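2024-03-11 09:14:02 INFO queue: dequeued item Major facilitator superfamily (MFS) profile domain-containing protein, len=508
2024-03-11 09:14:02 INFO validating residues
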Amino acid sequence: MPEADDSHVRLESKPTQENAVAHPAKDVEPRMERTATQRSNDPPGLHGIRLFFLLSCLFLGNFTIGFDSSCIGTLLVILTDYFDALQDIGCLLTLCAPILVMGRLYTFYSMKLLYVISFAIFVAGSILTAASPTSTAFILGRASAIPTETPKADSYRSILAHTVPLKLQPMIFGICGAVECAALAFGPLISGSIAHADSWRVNFWAIVGLGSAVALGVSVSVGHLRQNANDDQLSVGQRLKRLDWYGLATELPMTICLILGLQWAGTTYAWSNWRIILLLTMTGVLALLFLVVEHTGGSNSMISLPILRRRNVAFSCVVGFCNFAALWIFTNYLPVYFQVVRGADTLHSALMYLPTTLSMSIFALASGTFTSRIGYFNPALLLGSTLSVVGAALLGTFETNTPPARWIAYQIIYGIGVGMAFQPPFLALQTVLEKPLVPGALVLLNFVQMLGGIIFLSISQNVFLDELTNSLTHNIPNFNPAIAKQKWSDRAEGHGARGVSAAAYNGV
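2024-03-11 09:14:37 INFO prediction written
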């Protein structure tokens, strides 16, 4: 029998577990109307005020995540000047290495418990960030907080998948995406206003308060949700044995070697330096070992390789990787362009960035509603990806004197594309996979997205510093290239705004 065509998958049901096991490479066409057997296996859902309270807490959690992410781009120039460390710009958003472990934890721990713990760690990291006296302390705080953002996102999606009917999930997830995009939209404006009026530290103290409220609210609004109730009988030792320690031992150093290699190459050390060669070689070797470990790990593996043979899963990961790779670059360097090249302060930079974030927020919500109405996620995904490519290409044409009509319109085009393509990859996984596989698949998709952002943010930092140094050396006689790695402001060091601005733009 020919393989089922999954190019027009409809949000109507999930494949049965027996079919998924027998044909792991096929994407069975899903349908929204679920069978009585499937409904009877679902955990009891929430209703009324409890559901409203839970959704409110999860929406606030999404806003907190988005606000935390949006702070960095707006405050980037202030932070690098304050800590006198431009070379640390790519370290402000840090390691995604521990993320995949969450996929295994979901199989025998409460989703609510993991969500609350993730927010507790996030709050602790934000406290260190807000109180950090040095660049190293700031990065340690971010390194503690950022790796929990994806587990929080995985947890809330898993909680909603177990408490909201499938037919309503596109709309609810669209609202979640819109809330996060709204935080991305107004977060720069809020953080820029706070930094302009008081201090950048106040932003992170506000995040501490929001995160604490979310953790407390979720802890009292929903019971313990588990994939398998039988796992309650397992001891702590048995649960630890089920974690993929060999996979973690290869994936963690692989990610670190890759990030360090990309950040150091061409800036701290030459590409031909033995350190860079060693780091990239170790990355390749560890990647091969990781694939071997995951292939032989069986049911305890962090990544279920058979589900990657499903086209919807594989292409969702590819789309997520590419979308976040571009998004992280623009999120970090558009504010740099507005502040360094156009001479805007943090408040006006946030206002100039609103076209991107507002269009993202509006069309993330519209995309979820549209998908819920028609039952197909491919139209929004394809149109959104196309518009984001066009918008990204147009954003790459920015110059020092680009008129407002152009930089506003180009941002809107890109924001519409990113907003439309924000949720469909997650909806695809929740539609084509049976429920026990969904949390692990969501973790994998979030890991791929985070990895794409980190890799290309590191590459963009490398390109930025290299081009910035070359441009400053070319435009300013007797300029010391080492200054570019420590001080960079179009108003700094008395070099003249016009010359440094043009050079800085070429670096971007």
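2024-03-11 09:14:37 INFO annotate: The CA atoms of residues 472 and 478 lie 10 Å apart.
2024-03-11 09:14:38 INFO item closed
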